[in-house]
Specification:
Layout (H helix, E strand, L loop, with lengths): L6 H6 L3 H12 L8 H5 L15 H30 L6
Helix pairs in contact: 2-4
């Protein structure tokens, strides 16, 4: 959508939405779709994003990252649930 630079690009790697958008863009072959504006004005170039590369290796990387998010969230949920079980405060 927009190009991030510097620390914002680093922070974006820890956002699940980045990887979800990459997966959607790659599976729908977003870079290969003609832009409606490009049809009306051929002199405007259609920008292609490396994040939406429709290749097997790129999609495997994206799915691996999404899988890592799932594992991390499951571990955090398990830790949180075990802390509830061991809570000795009276209610």
């Amino acid at each position: 959508m927009i190009e991030l630079k510097g620390s914002m690009k680093t922070i974006s790697n820890y956002m699940i939405s980045k990887w979800g958008m990459e997966a959607l863009g790659a599976t729908s072959r977003l870079n290969g779709l003609p832009a409606r504006l490009h049809k009306q004005f051929p002199m405007i170039t259609h920008e292609k994003f490396s994040e939406y590369t429709a290749s097997v290796s790129h999609l495997q990387t994206v799915w691996l990252m999404l899988g890592l998010f799932i594992v991390v969230f499951l571990v955090l949920a398990d830790i949180g649930l075990h802390q509830i079980e061991s809570d000795t405060r009276s209610s």
